[in-house]
Amino acid sequence: MFIGRDKELNALDKLYESEKFEFVVIYGRRRVGKTALINQFIGDKKSIYFMGVESNEKQNLENLSKSIIEFSSGIQAETSFASFQAALEYVFKLAENERIILTIDEYPYVARSSKSLASTLQLLIDKYKDTSKLMLILCGSSMSYMEDHVLAYKAPLYGRRTAQMKILPFDFEESCRYFNNLSDEDKALIYGIVGGTPQYLLQMSDKLSVEENIKNTYLNPMSFLYEEPVNLLKQEVREPAIYTAIITAIATGHSRMSEISTKVGEDTNVCSNYLKNLINLGIIQKETPYGEKASKKSIYSIEDNMFYFWYRFVLDNNSVIARGAADMVYKRIEPQLSNYMGRVFEEICMQYLWKQLLEGNAPIEFVSLGRWWGNDPIQKTQAEIDIMGEQDSESALFAECKWRNEKVDLDILETLIGRSKLFHYTKVHYYLFSKSGFTKGCMEKAEEMGNVTLVSYADILRSMK
């Protein structure tokens, strides 16, 4: 089942229709759907597809040779080109008379086994770019390798690509397309549980309840998701145990560098390097209070919902899950789900605001969005604002998000107004987001003020249709 990626497919189709040499770099985390995207694109086109394996140069050259020979002759043969240069030059020449796509998937595996491959590609691109109609696609899951050895200024292939695509997980709207049969609330819960990574979304069934889905996946020792975070880290990093300790520390509320360092038992400089790698992988994010460039108040949080759920609820219960006690563990998880969804709902609300901006419906044309936290000198307490965004030094929006079963009352709006006065904007617009709607008093006050937008979860879903 292939869903979404319309923008990426349209971009690839435009490049394909150019009829001149094109070199596209596609990269992104594992499981995010890069190979599915490529297969969808090349499905009805003349193409050679080759996936690198974590082996030696000889094995990869043999596999590439088989793909090329099968394409050009229609038969499977055991013969092999003498070198990568000979194999690739053959393809460049084949494409002098017709449009051909050559995909090298998991390129880092091939390039690591053949140190001269990048230079060979550089040589052949420079030689044939004006005469060949080849569309070359290099794809990789190792984010650091693709960025450092393919896209970076010092890389041999720098300046040769004609396009690059960083494939990201789906947002909430795109993820909902997997789950036509789920209730509205369950759509948000499933997104909160697995995020927008296609491979994880496919583990969930819209014919089952949220409870059944959690039990079938995270609480089932035989399921794909049961050990997925650990397996993914083993593929991406050299010391998964330390990374696991750092993510666990963050998942259990240790969000500042000093707290993480103490919890893990490693120096802050050591932790800093590991955190940078986790940020590059899209697992962890570093946040500073909105509007502050560098701050001692910076915190770290888990960006990927699948990791967030697993480290919050699964890791500590591993021994019980291994003994088949899924019902017992779910009873521990269920009372915490509403609180867990608070941060996820903020993410959904941010996505809604961006959509409103891009569709020209935003009262404040902000340039970025983020959370803010800091000292409230008036109330003499620490204060937080779920979302804020600035248009310029005079205009900003402030938003509060509530994922709870009761309606949002006037006190939430009044608190948000009070906190907005910690800043000095002259034009302000307020948003209240609510899972369950708003009280009459809140709606009347919002209408009276004129610069307040009330958005229920149902409104967010309606905006997606």
Which regions have little confidence, pLDDT < 50, spanning 5+ residues? none
Overall structural domain count: 3
Number of strands: 12
What is the residue-averaged pLDDT?
94
The secondary-structure class comes to alpha/beta
Per CATH, the class of the largest domain reads Mainly Alpha
Major sheet attributes: 5 strands, parallel
Helix content: 40-55%
Tally of helical runs: 22
Question: First CA to last CA: what distance?
Answer: 21 Å
| Rg (CA only) | 25 Å
Structure overview:
By secondary structure, this protein is α/β, with parallel strands linked by helices. The chain has three domains: 6-166, Rossmann fold (3-Layer(aba) Sandwich), CATH 3.40.50; 173-341, Orthogonal Bundle (Arc Repressor Mutant, subunit A); 362-463, Trna Endonuclease, Chain: A, domain 1, CATH 3.40.1350.10. It has 22 helices and twelve strands. The chain has helices at 6-16, 34-42, 57-73, 84-94, 107-113, 117-128, 143-151, 172-175, 184-194, 198-201, 210-216, 228-236, 240-251, 257-264, 268-280, 305-314, 318-322, 326-333, 337-358, 410-420, 440-449, 457-463; strands at residues 22-27, 47-51, 100-105, 134-140, 163-166, 284-287, 299-302, 370-376, 381-390, 395-402, 427-434, 452-456. The strands form three sheets. The protein has a five-stranded parallel sheet. A hairpin with a 4-residue loop joins strand 9 (381-390) and strand 10 (395-402). Helix 9 crosses helix 16, helix 13 (240-251) packs across helix 14 and helix 14 packs across helix 15 (268-280).
